[in-house]
Specification:
Layout (H helix, E strand, L loop, with lengths): L3 E7 L2 E6 L2 E6 L3 H10 L5 E5 L7 H13 L2 E3 L4 H20 L10 H21 L5 E5 L6 H8 L4 E5 L7 H4 L5 H8 L4 E4 L2 H14 L3 E3 L2 E4 L2 E7 L6 H7 L3 H13 L4 E8 L6 H14 L7 E8 L6 H21 L7 E5 L4 H10 L2 E4 L8 H9 L6 E5 L12 E3 L4 H12 L3 H17 L2 H25 L3 H13 L3 E5 L19 H12 L3 E6 L4 H8 L5 E4 L4 E3 L6 E2 L8 H14 L4 E5 L2 E5 L7 H17 L4 E5 L3 E6 L4 H11 L4 E6 L2 H9 L5 E5 L8 E3 L2 H10 L3
Parallel strand pairs: 1-4, 1-6, 4-5, 6-7, 7-8, 8-11, 12-13, 12-15, 13-14, 15-16, 16-17, 18-19, 18-27, 19-20, 27-28, 28-29
Antiparallel strand pairs: 2-3, 9-10, 10-11, 20-21, 21-22, 23-24, 24-26, 25-26
The chain binds GDP-alpha-D-glucose.
GDP-alpha-D-glucose binds next to strand 12, strand 13, helix 13 and helix 14.
């Protein structure tokens, strides 16, 4: 039976030891809850590190047996792997770069090697458990290479990947010495998810700039696979937090808080110790509030929980020391005999206490410098059953894209941040409720179960799309059928586009001249009795003549403006005019003057603007501008503006590869017809040919062709094997 395999760095369980026995405690995290409905079912399984070093083999076996009963499968890591893969590459290289703190990043070869090896370790365990047809869902930045590693061994398996932390802008991501390997690893997935549209956009941009991929909207074509990249903002278990408010233990804790803070308003802050969380800036804003508005002295308390984390790493230790210092300083400066401005805890608490704090606090301050999503903000909202309370939220947290009714602040703007606290303290109840209601509706709807369902449904849709594509690919079976038709036929015609179909793209248009292997292939094909081979290209007729005039090929140049049979001379399509060029050329020249690397190619009846060598991004921007200007100037002039592969071509509408191909079919009756091409202009041929013709697109984009091949290499291979 088809099963689902979840893979994440950590298993959703805490293991503790007591008298030589291991005790497994399920973790309460949101992800564990959301995925609980999946991994606990049937044969499904969750693979991950149990969270501590367990070296003795017999203990590993014991733990494995116990975990298997819970549908969990451990990946054991050695202390060195924990140091280099987890603390090292994951937390000292990827974490700072992905959180825009590149100055903290360490680029150590040993870290990378360990990261690679541990990803392989995860892969081996996945491969032992995975069967064809299974679904694999991989989580987060510790396992960026895993999708690619699994894909290499199981090309057909369905893989989803979700990244919980931000994906940085290209300028940051490019700093990583292993950036290409990382992207290649991630692109092993079929569906890739991020919390925000910005992360998605940054990923697509990085992939485009670093790898030779094709991207259209949110679909990346890489190694003949279409990978869908989408935004799935993660939610929380809304009902759990809403219901916790009525839990007796929580009520009791709220009671204590009420007694202790009878005269003060509470501002709550909960984070893991991390430089990305903006804890120091939060303290500064609170300090400024007490300094500028002394009326709040004695009336407001900052209740700050910092959960211990990574504090053996020097930067974290330093941060902790700085927090200690600043808290001590503020408390010493502003405290009164009866009042402490900051209640600071460096520890974690049971969820009932968190819930009590969420219920009691007037304001929740969530002001990270960067955060993938931030679940604390959503937990606060879900806990406010009375719809009161104010959330102050950093615009750098993914959650700010959904919780737009929070008071949104830039955590670097300490002044504005302080004003937000004052606004929150003075916000009328009605406004609090209006804002909170809107946010609660969002957190309730886009909860963790909704998130899991959306991701899984989309993964299935992506797989169906890929299956359809696969069915169109010329595989061994279709190749045999094509060969059979070819051999049974007496009169055959084969239309071949040139650039991108028979040769690869080159940075210079003149560099893509035919090679000896291609000449040999064309010579052999055209020598077969009954074969008419037609080269049908957008190239200039002079070029096609120079390159292929000496072969027994029919030539159609400039999309059909010039034509030549193998025995005949070049002739032009009658009735064409090139007077329009006078008007269009200056528009293209203007674009060329403004865009370094671009150039204009002039053909008899068309003008082409090339931007293959223009800086990535700028080329596309100018091409879009030029397209809209050209569309305006070409209406009612009988001209067509065609976007191609890094080109824009303007030509007479009458010139059309489809029409040209049809005129060839008028001369003779063929019992085998085939056309191959990669470009938009080739679509006209695919559409014009009768249904029994075999049409093959080079590249996997949407096309009117029946089949597709991946590259010009595969085109040559198919042509070469036709005679077999
Ligand atoms: C990654 C991304 C993204 C906190 N203190 C205690 C405690 N917590 C719980 C909170 C909340 C969670 O920890 C922290 O939420 P984050 O959103 O920071 O989640 P992480 O998993 O650390 O971070 C983040 C998230 O993944 C999900 O994709 O939002 O941006 O960095 O649930 O309640 N829980 C208990 N005691 C505490 O003292 N029991």
């Amino acid at each position: 039976m088809r099963k689902t395999i979840i893979v994440s760095n950590r298993l959703p369980v805490k293991i503790s030891e007591s008298n030589g026995e291991y005790i497994m405690q399920p973790s309460e995290g949101g992800l564990a809850t959301g995925l609980g409905s999946i991994y606990r079912e049937g044969n499904n399984i969750w693979i991950g590190w149990p969270g501590q070093e367990i070296s003795a083999e017999k203990n590993q076996e014991k733990i494995t047996r116990q975990l298997r009963k819970l549908n969990l499968m451990p990946v054991f890591l050695t202390q060195e792997e924990i140091n280099n893969f987890y603390e090292g590459f994951s937390n000292e290289t990827l974490w700072p770069v992905f959180h825009y703190m590149a100055v903290y990043a360490r680029y150590e070869q040993d870290y990378w090697d360990a990261y690679y090896e541990v990803n392989k370790k995860f892969r081996d365990i996945v491969l032992k458990l995975a069967a064809p047809g299974d679904i694999i869902w991989i989580h987060d930045y510790q396992l960026l290479l895993l999708p690619g590693m699994i894909r290499a061994e199981m090309p057909e398996i369905s893989i989803g990947f979700f990244q919980h932390i931000p994906f940085p802008s290209f300028e940051l991501f490019r700093l990583l010495p292993w950036r290409a390997e990382i992207l290649e690893g991630m692109l092993g997935a079929d569906l890739m998810g991020f919390h925000t549209f910005d992360d998605t956009r940054h990923f697509l941009n990085a992939a485009n700039r670093i790898l030779p991929v094709n991207t259209s909207a949110n679909v990346v074509s890489w190694n003949d696979r279409a990978i869908v990249v989408e935004t799935f903002p993660m939610g929380i278990d809304f009902n759990k937090y809403a219901a916790l408010g009525n839990n007796p233990e929580v009520r009791k804790q709220v009671g204590y808080l009420k007694d202790n803070f009878q005269h003060e308003r509470m501002v709550l802050s909960i984070d893991r110790l991390d430089y990305s969380k903006g804890i120091l800036q939060r303290l500064q804003a609170f300090e400024l509030l007490l300094q500028l508005q002394p009326e709040y002295v004695g009336r407001v308390v900052l209740y700050m929980i910092v959960v211990p984390s990574r504090d053996t790493v020097p930067q974290y230790k330093e941060l902790r020391d700085e927090i200690d210092k600043l808290v001590g300083n503020i408390n010493a400066r502003f405290r009164t005999l009866a009042w402490h401005p900051i209640q600071y805890f460096y520890r974690s608490f049971p969820v009932e206490i968190l819930s009590a704090l969420y219920n009691f606090a007037d304001i929740c301050l969530v002001t990270p410098m960067r955060d993938g999503m931030n679940l604390v903000s959503k937990e606060y909202v879900a806990s406010r059953n009375n719809n009161d309370g104010v959330l102050i939220l950093s615009e750098m947290a993914g959650a700010s894209k959904e919780l737009i009714d929070a008071l949104i602040v830039n955590p670097n703007n300490i002044g504005a941040f302080t004003r937000a606290i004052v606004d929150a303290l003075n916000m009328p109840l009605e406004e609090q409720q209006r804002r909170m209601k809107q946010m609660r509706a969002i957190v309730a709807k886009f909860n963790i179960h909704h998130w899991v369902k959306l991701f899984m449904t989309r993964l299935q849709e992506v797989n169906e799309m890929q299956q359809n594509m696969l069915a169109r690919r010329v595989n061994q079976e279709t190749a045999v059928l094509i060969r059979q038709q070819y051999h049974e036929a007496k009169k055959r015609i084969i239309f071949l586009d040139y650039d991108g179909t028979l040769v690869g793209f080159q940075p210079n248009i003149d560099m893509a001249s035919p090679d000896p292997d291609l000449y040999q292939l064309l010579r052999e094909l055209s020598a077969v009795p009954g074969n008419d081979i037609v080269m049908i290209s957008g190239r200039k007729h002079e070029t096609l003549g120079d390159w292929f005039g000496h072969l027994k090929l029919d030539l159609i140049a400039e999309h059909g403006a010039w034509q030549k049979t193998k025995e005949g001379e070049w002739y032009q399509l009658p009735g064409l005019t090139d007077k329009w060029k006078k008007e269009i050329l200056p528009i293209m020249e203007l674009a060329t003057d403004r865009t370094p690397g671009s150039l204009i190619e002039e053909k008899s009846y068309s003008l082409v603007w090339h931007y293959r060598k223009v800086e990535s991004g700028l080329g596309e921007l100018r091409a879009n501008e030029l397209m809209s200007t050209l569309r305006y100037f070409t209406v009612e002039k009988g001209l067509q503006v065609l976007p191609g592969d890094k080109v824009i071509e303007v030509k007479n509408v009458e010139i059309n590869k489809g029409k040209a191909a049809l005129s060839w079919l008028n001369h003779k009756r063929y019992d085998f017809m085939m056309a191959m091409g990669d470009d938009v202009t080739d679509e006209d041929i695919f559409k014009a040919l009768p249904p029994k013709a075999i049409t093959i697109k080079v590249g996997s984009q949407v096309s009117a062709a029946q089949y597709y091949l991946r590259s010009y290499h595969e085109v040559r291979h198919l042509l070469r094997t036709l005679k077999q």
